[in-house]
Structure formats: C-alpha cells, structure tokens
Amino acid sequence: MLDNLNRYELYHTRRAPMSRTPAKLDELDLAILTAMHEYQKAGILELSRRTRVARATVQSRIGRMEESGVIASYDPQIDVTAAGFDVQAFVTLEIAQGALDAVAAELEAIPGVLEAYATTGSGDVLCRIGADSHAGLQSVLLSIDRTTSVVRSHSVIVLSTVVSRRTLPLLRTLTPAGTSKAPAYREVREG
User: Domain 4-76, what fold?
Assistant: First the structure.
C-alpha cells in the first residue's frame, strides 16, 4: 500500500517528467483527483473507499498520473502569510538577451523568490516574492536587481488574495476522455 509518506518519498526520488502531450483523463481520474484534493491526507486505501474503486485501480491510476506529470507534487501547500511572511509582491523582470537559464539560477539562489515564470509581453519573467516586512521585501528586490541577468524590474505589492491558488475548478471543466475502464463507482459523501 502506498501511503502519504511513501507517495511523498516517491515524488522526491522520482520526479515525473514534463508531459509533451496532455494526459487523457477520464471520469475515474477526475474522481480520484477530486478526492485527493478534498481529502489531502488520505492514503490509497481511503481514496479507494471514497471513490468505491479497488485499491489497486486507484494506485495504478495515481501512478499513471504521476508519470504523465498530472500529479506534480505531494509537497504541502504552505501559506507563507500564516508562516510570518506577510508582505508579498509580483515582480516583472526584463532580462538580458538569452539569459533565461542564467536568471533562473540566480533567482533560485534568492530565498524570497517563491516562484518565477517566463512570460510574453512587457517583461520576460514574472516572479512572486515574499518577505516578513517591507524592509525584507526591499532586500529581496535589491537582491533581484543585483543579479547579472536582470536589466530592469517593476514590482507591485499584494494587498490581499482575491482568489487563492486552485486547480480543481479547471479540472472540473474537462470533458472526460471516454468511459472509465474501471467498474462503476460513486463518490462517498460525508454527512
């Protein structure tokens, strides 16, 4: 049985490759992903119970979704604000021509950079940064500006979160890729 700790270890010892073609998710895959989202501490056996599908089927489907990159991580979602980093900002970077790999390495070396994405438009890279104070934010911004690859930066401070990070509503818009090959299932609802 693959429990939460084993899933965490599996992810960190064997990262799923980025899939070039989108995975074909069926109704059962979506039900498993929904159960994983709603019951994040559930192991394989509990997910099997909630979807009313055999444990081996759930384990196989999760393995396939890990391999295809649909399930990218079992890392906990940490609220940086609750952890004491109350100040966040988005920073748009203009970088030197051909410096994307270099700036990626430079940004990874700065602890206050939470995530960064290559973008189109007026900037080349969009970063989300966090700090424990405005002085800490200024320190992170200065560290970014001091990198050799950044030509110019523009930042905006986050006042509040309007919509938190989420994926389930988007997944629910998928048209399942055919009928599940697993026996019929029904999600068990609590209460």
Answer: Arc Repressor Mutant, subunit A (1.10.10)
* Domain boundaries, given as residue ranges, for the chain: 4-76, 87-157
**Number of CB atoms found within 10 A of residue 134's CB:** 12
Q: Do domains 4-76 and 87-157 have the same CATH topology?
A: no
Residue 178: pLDDT band with limits 50, 70, 90: low
141-168: b or e for each residue (b if 16 or more CB lie within 10 Å)? bebbeebebbeebebeeeeeeeeeeeee
CB atoms within 10 A of CB 177: 14
Q: In sequence order, what are the beta bridge partners of 113?
A: 129
Q: How do residues 48-74 score in pLDDT, each as one tens digit? A: 999 999 999 999 999 999 999 999 888
Q: Assess if CATH 3.90.1150.30 describes domain 87-157.
A: no
